[in-house]
Amino acid sequence: MGEFGLIGRYFQRAVLQQAGDPAAVALGIGDDAALLEPAPGCQWVISTDSLVQGVHFPEQYCPTDLAYRALAVAVSDLAAMGARPLGFTLALTLPTADEAWLGAFSDGLAQCAVDHRISLIGGDTTRGPLNIGISVHGEVARGRALRRSGARPGDLLCVGGPLGDAAAGLALVLDQPLPAPLDEASRDYLLARFWRPRAQCELGQALQGLASAAMDISDGLLQDAGHLARASGVALHIQGADLPSAPALRHWPARQQLDWMLRGGDDYVLLFSLPVAALAQLGDWPITVIGRVEAGQGVWLDGQPIAGDGGYQHFKESADG
Ligand code: ADP
Ligand code: MG
């Protein structure tokens, strides 16, 4: 099967091309480029992510999960901006055109595309070491995008869901020793939180006009909070006891739970600041207040300043680098 047969069979599928709002895609796969149709009065929202084996995902993976995760991670950046997903492109580099692998990958991609209502509109297919590049496109009403820079002293600091799940899920993927036996339901839940994160697009859109700043947590709460603090020119004070965790995490000792909630990456829940008066308007959303925005700088945990970035960084040579 050649490149074009492969594209036609695994990527030009109706389920992938029509996963999102059909009105948003004027021209999809098949020409030299795609045409998108944003709603009048909207701004374009664009983000790109690459996934490299051994860096962004472990060697032990299932192609269906891998595809789901690759797309969800990319869409999460749209959620963080308060955008509505429209379409995505896929730059896929593969060592071989293994049909079983491609079928499984295409299925996971389709599941994620449908879950997030985003259509595959184009891409590129090349041979080489496995690499997945995804660009996502969305729209947001002009001037309504959520940014990292608007947090103000007095605002509440909130997260959109439990923390630490994906780090625990990764420990399971890597077969790390368990402190206590884990029931099947907890195992399934944590693995799904690592392999099948749900980008919080609906929450992001609901936060428009309410949140003063927002971002998604991909590299761990402390590190990402550091970015938000810097962009906004404020200090973020977090209460460790207020961090939300799922019941499945409680199989691990408290210290491990806290470390994963603070430093584990890959949860893809939203982190945002909210004027106190706006909290009541989000009554139906399962959000958690984890701290406060204050004048100053940096991230503080239970009154103590956090040194360094406290999360994952590429190109970082040593702990003090
Ligand atoms: P070109 O050579 O003009 O860049 P290609 O031959 O690479 O175009 O691709 C042909 C069509 O197939 C284009 O519409 C392109 O967007 C689409 N395409 C190629 N690879 C993928 C892929 N992995 N997923 C989705 N669409 C793809
Ligand atoms: Mg061309």
Automatic annotation (TrEMBL):
<feature type="binding site">
    <location>
        <position position="218"/>
    </location>
    <ligand>
        <name>ATP</name>
    </ligand>
</feature>
<feature type="binding site">
    <location>
        <begin position="123"/>
        <end position="124"/>
    </location>
    <ligand>
        <name>ATP</name>
    </ligand>
</feature>
<keyword id="KW-0808">Transferase</keyword>
<dbReference type="InterPro" id="IPR010918">
    <property type="entry name" value="PurM-like_C_dom"/>
</dbReference>
<feature type="binding site">
    <location>
        <position position="77"/>
    </location>
    <ligand>
        <name>Mg(2+) 4</name>
    </ligand>
</feature>
<keyword id="KW-0067">ATP-binding</keyword>
<feature type="binding site">
    <location>
        <position position="124"/>
    </location>
    <ligand>
        <name>Mg(2+) 1</name>
    </ligand>
</feature>
<feature type="binding site">
    <location>
        <position position="216"/>
    </location>
    <ligand>
        <name>Mg(2+) 3</name>
    </ligand>
</feature>
<keyword id="KW-0784">Thiamine biosynthesis</keyword>
<dbReference type="InterPro" id="IPR036921">
    <property type="entry name" value="PurM-like_N_sf"/>
</dbReference>
<dbReference type="Pfam" id="PF00586">
    <property type="entry name" value="AIRS"/>
</dbReference>
<feature type="binding site">
    <location>
        <position position="219"/>
    </location>
    <ligand>
        <name>Mg(2+) 5</name>
    </ligand>
</feature>
<comment type="function">
    <text>Catalyzes the ATP-dependent phosphorylation of thiamine-monophosphate (TMP) to form thiamine-pyrophosphate (TPP), the active form of vitamin B1.</text>
</comment>
<keyword id="KW-0547">Nucleotide-binding</keyword>
<keyword id="KW-0460">Magnesium</keyword>
<dbReference type="InterPro" id="IPR036676">
    <property type="entry name" value="PurM-like_C_sf"/>
</dbReference>
<protein>
    <recommendedName>
        <fullName>Thiamine-monophosphate kinase</fullName>
        <ecNumber>2.7.4.16</ecNumber>
    </recommendedName>
</protein>
<feature type="binding site">
    <location>
        <position position="56"/>
    </location>
    <ligand>
        <name>substrate</name>
    </ligand>
</feature>
<feature type="binding site">
    <location>
        <position position="32"/>
    </location>
    <ligand>
        <name>Mg(2+) 4</name>
    </ligand>
</feature>
<keyword id="KW-0418">Kinase</keyword>
<feature type="domain" description="PurM-like N-terminal">
    <location>
        <begin position="30"/>
        <end position="140"/>
    </location>
</feature>
<dbReference type="Pfam" id="PF02769">
    <property type="entry name" value="AIRS_C"/>
</dbReference>
<feature type="binding site">
    <location>
        <position position="47"/>
    </location>
    <ligand>
        <name>Mg(2+) 4</name>
    </ligand>
</feature>
<feature type="binding site">
    <location>
        <position position="312"/>
    </location>
    <ligand>
        <name>substrate</name>
    </ligand>
</feature>
<feature type="domain" description="PurM-like C-terminal">
    <location>
        <begin position="152"/>
        <end position="298"/>
    </location>
</feature>
<dbReference type="InterPro" id="IPR016188">
    <property type="entry name" value="PurM-like_N"/>
</dbReference>
<feature type="binding site">
    <location>
        <position position="49"/>
    </location>
    <ligand>
        <name>Mg(2+) 1</name>
    </ligand>
</feature>
<keyword id="KW-0479">Metal-binding</keyword>
<feature type="binding site">
    <location>
        <position position="32"/>
    </location>
    <ligand>
        <name>Mg(2+) 3</name>
    </ligand>
</feature>
<comment type="similarity">
    <text>Belongs to the thiamine-monophosphate kinase family.</text>
</comment>
<comment type="pathway">
    <text>Cofactor biosynthesis; thiamine diphosphate biosynthesis; thiamine diphosphate from thiamine phosphate: step 1/1.</text>
</comment>
<feature type="binding site">
    <location>
        <position position="77"/>
    </location>
    <ligand>
        <name>Mg(2+) 3</name>
    </ligand>
</feature>
<feature type="binding site">
    <location>
        <position position="48"/>
    </location>
    <ligand>
        <name>Mg(2+) 1</name>
    </ligand>
</feature>
<dbReference type="InterPro" id="IPR006283">
    <property type="entry name" value="ThiL-like"/>
</dbReference>
<feature type="binding site">
    <location>
        <position position="77"/>
    </location>
    <ligand>
        <name>Mg(2+) 2</name>
    </ligand>
</feature>
<feature type="binding site">
    <location>
        <position position="49"/>
    </location>
    <ligand>
        <name>Mg(2+) 2</name>
    </ligand>
</feature>
<feature type="binding site">
    <location>
        <position position="148"/>
    </location>
    <ligand>
        <name>ATP</name>
    </ligand>
</feature>
<dbReference type="GO" id="GO:0009030">
    <property type="term" value="F:thiamine-phosphate kinase activity"/>
</dbReference>
<feature type="binding site">
    <location>
        <position position="266"/>
    </location>
    <ligand>
        <name>substrate</name>
    </ligand>
</feature>
